[in-house]
Design a protein that fits this description.
Blueprint: E1 19-20, E2 35-44, E3 48-55, E4 61-62, H1 79-85
Parallel strand pairs: 1-2
Antiparallel strand pairs: 2-3, 3-4
Bound molecules: zinc ion.
């Protein structure tokens, strides 16, 4: 009798690879917009690790490689966004 080993469990990867950067969701921001940093991090080949921000109002996403800057409903750039921008 031949035991087939090829059907074995795939090897566990040692570490989860970072999420590859993808285009951000972008929606028209509304007067209820409130940006905050998410737990997510993307990896961009040129820029490296990117903290991902999301807007609780319209569902837009932002990383510092985007050409625009998020603004809260108050008209101010959130401090965490500003810090990431100038990293
Ligand atoms: Zn928004």
């Amino acid at each position: 009798m031949v035991v087939d080993q090829t059907g074995a469990m795939p090897p566990d990867s040692a570490a989860e690879p970072p999420t590859t950067a993808r285009p951000c969701a972008s929606w028209p921001c509304q007067s209820i917009c409130l940006w905050r940093q998410t737990d997510e991090q993307w990896y961009d080949e040129r820029a490296g690790e990117l903290a991902v921000f999301s807007c609780g109002g319209c569902g837009s996403e932002w990383v510092r490689t985007e050409p625009w800057t998020p603004v809260d409903a108050t008209g101010q750039v959130p401090a965490a966004v500003a810090a990431e921008r100038f990293r």
